Inverse folding.
């Protein structure tokens, strides 16, 4: 029986999709899952995603642990980093070999919503081929969760899920029974394929990041396979590269 694909367009909808059997792929293209893959690819030992800022007290800073937090697209005051993947690269010599404790507006909240699932990884364009290859090798049903924006649907995460789903269909995967979201996302991906940057020109988070002068992050996050690792969520709450 062929493995199935489905897409949950917002973490708020996850309880309606969760069955415990499918591998969950959390997606936050702008920027959490792009930053996670980038950090791990550039030498971070592990990323520990947490939801609320109050949870940092459970994981105090020390020589081998760094704090990173973002809210509304900006680094939170008092933290070492936000969630810019380009900052992860620029500070890779400082971060190498350390644990990164990370909290973001959307991406780590989405991970939190599905952390009890039996299998969870994170995906973005920066590691899309590695993620698809991993899923093909596992040959199990897949549920993509779009991190969105504060519970609302966004365009860039839907676009990525459509692109990844198109690739999985070429490897023998099938659509789940109630997979209208997959059909929608694949149609978006087909339309945007020629120029994703232009397609996302009016998307809310791209505009938000542009206003924060973070367009270079946008370009990086839409570049395929520049951080080819698969972050997999372990029982101890850390994301480790495979």
């Amino acid at each position: 029986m062929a493995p199935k694909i489905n897409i949950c367009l917002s973490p708020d909808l996850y309880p309606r999709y969760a069955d415990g059997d499918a591998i969950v792929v959390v997606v936050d293209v702008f920027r959490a899952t792009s930053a996670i893959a980038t950090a791990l690819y550039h030498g971070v030992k592990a990323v520990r995603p947490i939801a609320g800022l109050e949870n940092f007290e459970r994981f105090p800073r020390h020589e081998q642990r760094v704090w990173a937090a973002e809210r509304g697209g900006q680094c939170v005051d008092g933290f070492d980093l936000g969630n810019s993947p380009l900052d992860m690269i620029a500070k890779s010599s400082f971060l190498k070999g350390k644990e990164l404790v990370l909290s973001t507006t959307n991406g780590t909240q989405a991970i939190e919503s599905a952390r009890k699932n039996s299998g969870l990884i994170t995906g973005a364009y920066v590691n899309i081929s590695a993620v698809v290859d991993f899923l093909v090798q596992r040959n199990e049903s897949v549920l993509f969760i779009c991190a969105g924006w504060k519970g609302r649907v966004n365009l860039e995460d839907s676009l990525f899920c459509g692109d990844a789903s198109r690739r999985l269909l070429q490897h023998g995967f099938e659509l789940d029974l109630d997979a209208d979201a997959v059909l929608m996302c694949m149609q978006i991906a087909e339309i945007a394929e020629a120029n994703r940057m232009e397609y996302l020109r009016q998307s809310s988070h791209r505009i938000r990041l542009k206003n924060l002068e973070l367009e270079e992050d946008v370009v990086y996050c839409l570049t395929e396979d520049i951080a080819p690792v698969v972050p997999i969520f372990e029982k101890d709450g850390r994301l480790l590269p495979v």
